[in-house]
Structures are given as structure tokens and as C-alpha cells.
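During the second half of the funding period, the structural biology subgroup turned its attention to how the target accommodates small molecules. The most pressing case was adenosine-5'-diphosphate, which had performed well in the primary screen but for which no bound structure existed. We therefore specified the complex as follows and requested a full 3D prediction, including the ligand pose.
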Amino acid sequence: MLGLMMNQPLMISGLLRHAEANHGDTEIVSRLAVGGTHRYTYAAAAKRSRQLAKALIALGVKAEDRIGTLAWNTHRHFEIYYAVSGMAAICHTINPRLFPEQISYIVNHADDRFIFFDVTFVKLVEALIPHCPGVKSWVILCKRDEIPENTIPGLQCYEDLVAAQGDDFEWPEFDENTASSLCYTSGTTGNPKGVLYSHRSTVLHAYGSSLPDALGGSARDCILPVVPMFHVNAWGLPYACALTGAKLVMPGPHLDGASLYAMFEEEGVTMSAGVPTIWLGLLQYLQGNKLKLSTVKRLVIGGSAAPPAMIRAFDEHFGITVLHAWGMTEMSPLGTVNTYKFKHLALSAEERDRIRLKQGRGIFGVELKIVDGDGTTLPNDGKAFGDLMVRGPWITSGYFKSEGGNPLRDGWFPTGDVATIDPDGYMQITDRSKDVIKSGGEWISSIDLENIAVAHPAVAEAAVIGAAHPKWDERPLLVVVKKPGQEVGRDELIAFYDGKVAKWWIPDDVIFVDDLPHTATGKLSKLQLRDRLREYRFPGA
Ligand code: ADP
């Protein structure tokens, strides 16, 4: 017997309709690529999204067409998210930090019909045009008098397209499993692969990520997603903010410490989200200028491991709770978030420290397990570590155009991460499977060793890689960027590990560098680092 409840499909347009009806006067504030600040409300955003949907139809966009974006976090990108998916086309966010050859590969693979881009990317677009013959036209995200000099044939102006339409448009209702948006993984190995989200997966992810033990946004929050809208839909925040009615602050292209500090203070930001490198920049700016953040309560840190020293610094010096989160493009992205349980509240600060450096508990909607090389499930005892597998309604079942074949194993998605899970359900990443250091047949966690190094007062950033060793196969090599004006030597850093890890885990050598390579999504690029250090040999080895 079936239940007798309405079978109303979960539509992305429903999120915007909800925000318009219930939070119509709540603000969306954007810093623009052309300079200046734009300010309007959810009601105005909903109206302009309807105008844009009509403009898309007038341009000839049909259901399932892919519409690319090369754009920062702004109100216009927000409108594109809703208008494109809302009219049953597919919003394809492209990471402008990729190499132009990767971008043209992605545009052609996705068959993008139109591309909307910020003024910052005029030169990039000019270089892409000869390689992207399938793109019918390019739309620049500004007013007509703000268009920079360019050689783009038939360039369309976003504000003209929107202004030409009324907002008399009803969002269509269709199957909730319809594709809504597309995001390519950075492809550290092989070609980038497209993850194709649906209306249903996006709305469920917005629900799940808004839970109090997840990101917990609310109508009393002012949320600034530092994480770009081209990186897994800004971790779903443009949807979750409409769902909860949070004020939304869009930072545009300015993500340095000084710009973030100014926006946090001017707009009263209560919560923000981004990768550790961003927060490193902000911490250095705050500490260097002896500043405090007066309204921020929670910072979501994910994308790579949040070093415990960073979690502690935000807590102790700024009174800010860090929500350590883990996920991936294939997971929309949210998988786990670290929050305490009731029983933990009575623990000492040191005992709680041990819990909060983990990546957190699976939120409802994401099941986790760890398996060994044969696929046998390992115990959740906090000690055994194995390949982390996930399943749930906002996790990919396969890549766009079946790229790479079926990724699932027995219905579970292999994350490529190596992790432990403790009896309370807290998962801790020990490594990406390709970064784990294999020394004499045993595994050493590079993340653990990096976390210790960055706790040293003279260390700004650290990476540990497995360097080739004639006897042990690989041994840990610590690569360090010093804080400006600080000094520390090799022996002091090696001695810093004494008593913190097993003796055989301690790095054999330290190299000091001016900077570390990062990927297009702001993560340490161990691939590039290993490449840079290919000629490295341990002293005496
Ligand atoms: P990419 O395209 O680089 O794979 P994703 O954003 O999809 O980009 O990256 C997902 C990966 O990032 C995860 O599989 C994991 O290795 C890493 N990651 C994400 N969050 C964390 C975290 N909190 N701690 C450690 N690693 C993380």
C-alpha cells in the first residue's frame, strides 16, 4: 500500500520561491569584479531570475542544454544558478583557475551552448574561443557601459538580456531526478570527470547541510561563502541560504585576508566557509594587524585537513567555532561535519581537542564505511584504517557521459581517501590513498605529520611527501614554508616530533621552500611537489 502524501517533486526553483515568500526583504550583498558593492534582496533576486529564465528561452536555450559559467561569487552567478536549473537546463560551473587547455576540454566535453563570464576573464575567453566551436555565444556579466575592450564576436551583455524581459514566468515542474548542474573534478589523474547533480540531490543536500550538527545555517545568520561557486556549488551554500533564509554575502574575486576582514565586519557575517589556505591568509592578516572579528561565530573549514593549530587559534584567540567538514565534488560535497555530542561537553579541553581534529560524523543522508584491500569491512574502532566508501542520495552513481566506467563497488562510492572511523562515528582522514607514505610495508599518515609541523610557531605551511628510499621504499620528507621573519632549523623541526608520533614516523629530512604548489581548488598539490622534488635524495641514502 502506498502512502497518501502529495508527490511533489523537489525542485531547485522551490528553494528560491520559498526565500521570496518568507525572506523577501533579506539581503544578498555582492562585491563585484568591476569594483563596488551590489545590494538587493531575495525578492529582487527571484524576480531577476525569472527575467533571466525568459532571456534564456529567448536565446534559444532548451531543457538539458549545458550553460557554462566562468564567474566569481556574485548575485548574478546566483541568478544563473536558479534560472538555468529552474528552466530545466544544466548549470555548468567552470573553474577559471584551471589551465586554458583543461577549460576548453571541459567546455567541449560538456557541450556548453552558452558561457556566462565575469569581466576578469575577457582575456581567457578570447583565448578559449578558437578551441570551443560549440559555444553559440558568450555573455559578459556586467552592464553595457562596463564592458572592457575585447575581440569577442557577437558578445552579449547580461544586464541587457535581463532588462529586455518581464518577470511573468512560472517555474516549470518536472521530474526531480532531472539533471540540474554539472561540476568537473579537478582531475589530479586522467581527464577531468563531470559530476552531474539533480534537483532532488541538490534539495536533499540543502536540507541535510542545514541541520544543526551540519552547517546549521538559519534566518539569523549572515553567511559569506568564500568557497567559490565554481567549486562544488560553493559547497551548496547558495541553495542552503535560500532554504534557511540566511543573509548572503558574495565576496566576488577578492579573497585575501584584508578584503575578507572588511566584508566580515561591514556586513556582520556570522558564518563563512572555505579551504584552509584561505583561513591561513585571514589568520595572518588578523594577527599581523592585531584585529578581532566582532560578529563571526562559525567557520567551516574543509577541502583539505584543517590543521589543529588553526582550529585552536580561531577558538582561543577569536572565540570562533571551527566546523571541520569533509566531502568531495562527487558528494555535492558534504559528507561529515565535526560537532560534539552531549556527552563530550563534560570533557576537558585536551580530551575534546582529540575529537575536534577529526573530520567529523556522517550527516544523515551519508553512510560511511572503511574496507581493506579485498573489500572486507573493517571495524569502527578508531584504529583500523582503510579505504573510505560512501553511499547516499547526493552521492554520484557515475560520471557524465560514463567517463571512467562505473565507479561504484557493490553500490558504494570509493572516495580515494584512507580513514579511520571511531565507535562514536567520527571519521578521520589519514590520507588520500595516493599520498599515504609507504615505509617498509607500513603506512604513515602525511596529514598527521603536517599537522604537527604547522603547530610549530615558526612554520606557516608544511607538506610531507613520501620520497624514494633505497631501504624503506619511501620515507617521509618534510617541506616547510617559514613564517615571515621567523627562523627554525632542520634539527629543531625533527626534534619537534619527539614524543608526538612513533619514532619510525618522524621525517628523515626537512627542506625549506618559499612557497608550496596548490591546485586550482586551493589544496596542496602533492603531485606537483613530488614532481619538483623528483631529484631529491635523502642525505647518505
Ligand atoms: P578534487 O577535485 O581536488 O578531488 P574535491 O573538492 O572533490 O576536489 O576533493 C575531495 C577530496 O578533498 C577528498 O576526497 C579529500 O581527500 C579531500 N578533503 C576534503 N575535505 C577534507 C578534510 N576536511 N580533511 C582532509 N581531506 C579533505
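Two results from this model are relevant to the next phase. Residues 437-532 form a domain with the GMP Synthetase; Chain A, domain 3 fold (CATH 3.30.300.30). DSSP finds 16 helices and 25 strands in the chain.
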